[in-house]
Amino acid sequence: MRTATTDPIVPEWSTPDQPTATARQLALALARFEVAEVEAWRAELLVAVAELAAAAGTSWRFGTGDPTIALVRAAAVLAGHTPDVAGPRTAIVVAALGG
């Protein structure tokens, strides 16, 4: 049987020393590629866009169209509305894209 813990729940899963990248940096990195080239990073891009949307306090929806296009569009919208929102998973994608 497991015992319950009363430790506080940590609301932030990242540590302060992790590098972060902003929505603006992600959009600029994505702008250098064709959508078909971004396909290889779709899973990582999904995590980055979800991270930025959560940090910005906004919701975003997937349409019925191409998921890669929806993610690129969501990244562009986030960069336009909340360009300075940042996250560590976004930094990984920006680095992978050479940004």
What does this structure look like?
With 99 residues, this protein is mainly α. The radius of gyration is 15 Å and the shape is globular. The longest helix has 15 residues, at 42-56. The protein has five helices and two strands; from the N terminus they run βααααβα. It has helices at residues 23-30, 35-38, 42-56, 67-81, 88-96; strands at residues 21-22, 86-87. 52% of the residues lie in helices and 4% in strands. It has a two-stranded antiparallel ribbon with strand order 1-2.
| C-alpha Rg (nearest Å) | 15 Å
Q: Beta fraction of the residues?
A: under 5%
Question: How many helices in DSSP terms?
Answer: 5
Low-confidence stretches: none
How does the overall form come out from the CA principal axes?
Answer: globular
Task: Output mean pLDDT.
Answer: 85
Strands, total number:
2
**Strand count, sense and closure of the main sheet?**
2 strands, antiparallel
Order of helices and strands: EHHHHEH
Helical content class: 40-55%
Helix/strand/pairing category: mainly alpha
Give the N-to-C terminal Cα separation.
49 Å
Biggest sheet, strands in spatial order? 1-2
